Amino acid sequence: MDWNTNLKHLMGEATQLVRSGHLADATRTLQQALGGAVARHSSPPTPASADTALPGDPNPAPANAPLWRRFGAQADVEDVIVVDRSHPGSPPKAAPPQAEPPGSFTRIAFTQSGTRHNPHHYHLYVPPGAAAGAPMPLVLMLHGCTQNPEDFATGTGMNAAAAPAIALVLYPEQPHSANPNGCWNWFRPGDQHRGSGEPALLVAMVQDVMARHAVDTQRVYVAGLSAGGAMAALLGREYPDLFAAVGVHSGLQAGAAHNVMGALSAMKNGAKPGATTQPTASTPTLPPPPTIVFHGDADPTVHAHNGEQLIQATLSALASAPGGAPATVKTVQQGHSASGQGYTRTVYSLAGGADTESKRPRPAVAEHWVLHGAGHAWAGGNAGGSHTDPRGVDATQEMLRFFLEHPRD
Asked: Does the pTM exceed 0.85?
């Protein structure tokens, strides 16, 4: 059954449930469809990844698929240590717990008071070059639906990329008790604002890492795929005082939808005019973080128009920031990945040449990578992880390059 037919069937079923007064069942039906769409409409398999199956796929993986994919075990990224870490959601006043050692990838139990579904978990990668007291960049990585931190770390290869940059990488885990398909709830009003819901939880995890490790507060970044990308965009909008730059792969702009029906519509066609909301009143009035966007123009799950809207939202927010609308210069580059997949890279930089004080070229405020012929998958990813397209340009390296070019002012 194709997506349009399936959507009509689900809409009809949900409508009948609403008419019969079963509102909770109707909502559950649409929530399952929202996550199921991601699992069903990932990019077509490539020769490099044809031996893998998506998590939750009703068809079992073939015998030569990785063991963790065949039997539901966790990805063997590195040895994983489980640490029980209870935390109230703000840096402790007493001496912080012992930091995880260099070269480790640790699963940590995390409790935030006032949050449902406790305890939560996250994975933290500490690069081998970490030295006591030396401030390090921190990258917050938000997985997509049906994924988990180990899977996402495997597929993106962010740990290996972060090692030479001596950067920490934080992978929160969305429990299935919060969303049946492990999606971040970017479409729920209670999870779209500073100081509440999932944004507050994710920031509390960042603060928990900052309490134990020397983090460079000017170089804290957030990136995500699909639902994780939509949540990354929300965090950038709501916490411009924390995140120096944002990376969104196959996601949607902040506030693209405010319920499940709106989410399905935005995923299929892009956000409707007027669907987005303004930042929370308590959000500092600052320019938006620089944003890099990757999106396949053949994505059947989240329409490529969403990538265009993400860039436009960044430019619009920049225009309305204090000091008036700065002029931007757009440059366009055509190219191909090492495997031959074409892309169009559009860079938006502040006009005016070099910075008058440092004499260095002004950094980009936004980058938009349109991946030609690509579906709903992390470009240049590892076939050992789900939702990856090894043929594409290396989105991980490009994101990390963009991040490190943009420390927060």
From this structure: no
